[in-house]
Structure formats: structure tokens, C-alpha cells
Amino acid sequence: MRIVAGRHRGRKLEAPPGGTTRPTADRVRQALFDMLWHAPWAGRACIEDAAVLDAFAGTGALGLEALSRGAASADFLERDRVALAVLRANIAACREEARSRIWPGDAVRPARAPRACGMLFLDPPYGQELVPKALAALGKAGWIAPAALVCAEIGVEEGLDLPGYAVLAERAHGAARLVCLRLADTA
């Protein structure tokens, strides 16, 4: 697994052993960032200089990809101890400690946010309907800026019922489905 583009292009990322953490595949990350980069509802400005939250961070691949492509900062939310150690190592390997903050904890019970983020990546375990729960909890904790762009990776067969959010785009990639959304009153 590697960073696909930007300043850290080609940088190898580690992944925890076993099947507890399912990192987003390089090709899926490439497809997501290509979609964001070229969409009329997103574009380069949605990533460049953005405050990013990588919830269910695992290896940190999504947040580190955003930093590589020009995001100003990334907060990483992860609860698994083994994944946290790998996440710290990946941030150090990219020399992004100054622009990164790790929050050990659960995305469905997050700590109070130090600031709201304009770009959120959610890549929870498939089949547990965690995206709606996490968005509700992250919103209450102050992590979501009013016009934030949310990118979720869910299983291709999973439903996604999110009242109050407008779906901007959906794409299937093998077992994964990428869904980009925004609060309905700001879409």
C-alpha cells in the first residue's frame, strides 16, 4: 500500500497484521481523490488547505493521502491499539507529525473536537451501519463544519440512510462503495 499522488507519492504505508483493519486499496483511494479533484461540487479547493478528519483511520491512508495532496492538517480517530501504533509509524514515515493529530477513541463516541473539519473521511468496518451513527456523534461533538464534504467507504451491498444529507456521488469499486455527501441545506 502506497500514497498515490502528491508530495508523498510512492511512500509505502504499513498495515496491521491480520484482518482487524481493512485499509482502503490504492486504486479505491485513487478513484476517490480523482472524483473529488474533478467534481463540480468539490474540486482541488475541497482538499487543498482543508482541515481533514480521518475517522476509523486504521493505517491513516485517507488522511495521509489528503495531506500529500495539500490538506492543511489531518486529525485521525482510531480505537484499535495495534492500528494506532501503525498509524503513528505511517505519520512519522511521511514526516507529517506537525500537521497531524491522533485521537485514540471511537468515532461513534468521539471526544469534543478542537475545531470543525471541512473534509471528513469515514471508512468503518463494513456491514455494521456505522456511518450514520458516526456522523450523528461527530456532529454533536463539533467535528463537522457547516458545509463539510463527507466521503464514506461502505460495502457495495450496504444501505445508507442519512436524513439531512444530500448524496453528491456514488461509485462502486469491487467490494467497496464510495459515497460523497454534504448536509442537505449546504449541498
Features:
Rossmann fold, alpha/beta, 7 strands, seven-stranded mixed sheet, 187 residues, single chain, 4 helices
What's a concise summary of this model?
With 187 residues, this protein is an alpha/beta fold. It contains 4 helices and 7 strands. Helix 2 links the parallel strand 1 and strand 2.
Describe the structure.
Keywords: Methyltransferase, Transferase. It is an enzyme of class 2 (transferase). It comes from Teichococcus globiformis. This protein is 24% helix and 27% strand. The chain is of the alpha/beta class and 187 residues long. The mean pLDDT is 93.
Break the fold down into its secondary structure elements and pairings.
Layout: H1 26-38, E1 51-55, H2 61-68, E2 73-78, H3 81-93, E3 100-104, E4 117-122, H4 130-140, E5 144-155, E6 165-173, E7 176-183
Parallel strand pairs: 1-2, 1-4, 2-3, 4-5
Antiparallel strand pairs: 5-7, 6-7
Whole-number count of domains: 1
Largest sheet: 7 strands, mixed
Assign the CATH class.
Alpha Beta
CATH topology: Rossmann fold
Radius of gyration: 15 Å
CATH superfamily: Vaccinia Virus protein VP39
The string of secondary-structure elements, in order, is HEHEHEEHEEE
| CATH architectural type | 3-Layer(aba) Sandwich
Q: Which strand order spans the largest sheet, edge to edge or round the barrel?
A: 3-2-1-4-5-7-6
Distance between the termini: 33 Å
Treating each run of at least 4 consecutive H or I residues as one helix, how many helices?
4
Query: Would you report the number of β strands?
Result: 7
Enzyme class: transferase
Protein name: 16S rRNA (Guanine(966)-N(2))-methyltransferase RsmD
Biased composition (Basic residues): 1-11
Region (Disordered): 1-24
